[in-house]
Amino acid sequence: MIRSARVEDAVPCALILGDFFATTAWLPRLHTPAEDLAFMRDAIGRGHVTVATENGIAVGFIGADDGWVTHLYLAPAMRGKGIGSALLDHAKRGQASLTLWCFQANEPARRFYESHGFAVVETTDGAGNEEGVPDVKYHWEAKA
Predict the structure, then answer these.
(1) Residue 64: CB atoms within 10 Å
(2) The predicted structure's pLDDT at residue 96
(3) Residues near 87 by beta carbon (within 8 Å), at least 6 away in sequence
(4) If pLDDT is split at 50, 70 and 90, which confidence band does 144 have?
(5) pTM of the predicted model, to two decimals?
(6) What stretches of 1-144 show up as alpha helix (H) in DSSP?
């Protein structure tokens, strides 16, 4: 089920976010679990998060605001099941375009975005992001 995130989704979403950073060797872990939880509570409170649930528990989430996808993460066991596609399709609804940043080294995510019609518009050396890791900017335009 895809729905707007609620306060009770903050903990599972923070765990999903933290797991990605903790298990990705090329990515520095900059935030504590408490900081991840505070980040998710804030994003959910601003109404910018949509979750995918299984048995009522968030198993993935997307943040979208003002034409930007700010984050898209899934629990590891949920990857490859169409959940990310469903969340991204939900974010695309009613939008003329979407833009997002992705780490260059995240090949699975890059393939995912490119398979969903996103095109590379910029690459950087990472100097502009908190992690200091090279990234790539993607853009998608709705078909007329």
Answers:
(1) 21
(2) 96
(3) 2, 50, 52, 60, 61, 62, 72
(4) confident
(5) 0.94
(6) 10-23, 33-45, 83-92, 107-115
